[in-house]
Amino acid sequence: MRYREDFAREVEVREDWIPMADGTRLHARVWLPADALADPVPALLEYLPYRKGDWTSPRDAQRHPYYAGHGYASVRVDLRGSGDSEGVMLDEYAEQETADGVAVVEWLAAQPWCTGRVGMFGISWGGFNSLQIAARRPEPLKAIVTVCSADDRYDNDVHYIGGSVLGIDMAGWSGTMLAFTSRPPDPITVGDAWLPMWKERLDALEPFVHTWLDHQTRDDYWRHGSVCEDYSAIDAAVLAVGGWADPYRDTVLRLVEHLPGPVRGLLGPWAHQYPDIARPPGPHIGFLQETLRWWDHWLKDADNGAMDTPRLRSWVQEPVPPATAYTERPGRWVTDDAWPSPATRWSEQALGAAGCAPVTVHSPQHTGVDAGRFFPYGNATDLPPDQREEDGRSTCFDGEPLAERVEVLGRARVRLRLDADRPRGTVIVRVCDVAPDGASTLVTRGVLNLGSRYGRDRSVPWEPGNPEDVEVELTGTGYAFPAGHRIRVAVSTAYWPWVWPQPDDPSLTVWPDRSALLLPVRPAGTDEGRAPVEFEGPEQAPPLAVELGASEPRPERLVSHDVGTGEWVLDVDPNYGGSRTYPNGLVYTEKARERYRIRVDDPLSAMAGSEWEITMRREDWDVSVRTSSELTATADHFVVHSTVEARSGGEVVATRRWEREIPRTAG
């Protein structure tokens, strides 16, 4: 990493309040050239709930001063009800959030230090709302950079997967957001108003999971904020970025396929991180330089070739032995001028020989404990380990050893002729690269709630005794299967804790000769004669002087099995960043834990839990928040228990407790 300290323009930092139409004020931190009043600049907005005063401040210091030094006003705004902004936050991507974001864009454009042109950028939440605000077409917003984000809030986010409840993050992320929305603003910014602002937030609290489980099919709640509903609404230029280790990678493929306006896609080997941040897997790139070229072209009219790049640049991964982290993922960059690529050839391979007997699929409930983290952040235990144990809990269909190398790029599919012996069920498909020594590396996977086989907007029970053809679309990948390896299709009926188990615990009958794997093959020689893809090395502004605190040593992911009861427990430390002391004297400590429990033979034994403990101290200011969330289910209801306890100086400010039963309509 190169730290850039000398910039063309001197940078100053100011704090500001942005008024909304109802009188609520959002707090902004603005990095801008010191001479911007005399020589105005375009503005760049990052708009998040993740607290610029503490949680994101180390990351903010990497990029906002960098952009400012290159002639931009780089602005970080806390969402309404988060960080130091006024008001309350009731849900993610709510109409109020989007309307506020449009107002912020227009406010920035009207400032005397701004040229009137605005860009937006962000990773994850900030990438989501960049797309959502772009779809509202505020006139000043000319370009966005959306990283690790989703265009479909129902089928490509942290709530549902393939029409099934996403057990690992439906509860875990709701617990995380409960911990975020329970935190107070900082008196160093808001003064004595911090306590009444905090009490207002605590009074308005409601666990987000209640709302998410109230909408178990893809209804209007999920259509709101899903830009896939109308790609044509976006006319700003879009640079869409993702990583093969990130669950949102398919959004990049859809955006480069469907957006009618200027768009470029970039898919690397990365996890849920900006591509310049040195967290595995690499290699990492000079992402700030790449985005600066984008901004200069669209916001400063620079003729710099930003749109001369191919429509999609992708990293095709070389085969590697299975591991839970890779410092560098070997591979190469390939390019496509259109997507779907006209170079792709679909290869269809039946899962069994003609006339072979049908097979039964019925998996133990702990199938999935080796799935890896849903959101890899670049930690040591994030990626799936060797899949041999998972394969043993599944029904596997192996191809013959490959006679030659096979490269795939895009979204594979598996078509299954099957029957289920219960009205409700789920089918999970994994594709693995099996080496001659038996090592099994996960390449891609997909999930289908059988009730959503006719569309995610409805739930249609299966009719046992009436076989059907269903198709499971797998997540996108760029991968090279080497000669001599086998391609394995593994099918299971469980995938805990990623997929919340259906209560009926069905068995499936699959006809292999009428089922097939369809691979998007990139033929050898496709890239001959094309210009190589090149990036500069990573470069950032100097890091913030944060002192990391000591943390209690414990495993990031611990799997335990009680042989007597058949119970399996996954104990997770999400390791978001830990405790730290900031230059302004704030001492922030954080402990988070997630637990997922199930018995091997009982789908109704599933439990997902989340616990957070946060303390924040500076001089005589000392506050703490403890939260807990637990999700279980009966055959007919989801059951949610959540608590919050907030203290100031050791005294209780608020205690909240929720118990909710939500009918199982589709999940």
Automatic annotation (TrEMBL):
Domain of life the protein comes from: Bacteria
The keyword Cell division appears for this protein: no
Database matches in Pfam families: Peptidase_S15, PepX_C
UniProt domain Xaa-Pro dipeptidyl-peptidase C-terminal: residue ranges: 292-534
Swiss-Prot/TrEMBL keywords: Hydrolase
Coiled coil: none
Keyword Hydrolase: yes
A single GO molecular function term of this UniProt record: hydrolase activity
Protein name, as recorded: CocE/NonD family hydrolase
Native species: Streptomonospora nanhaiensis
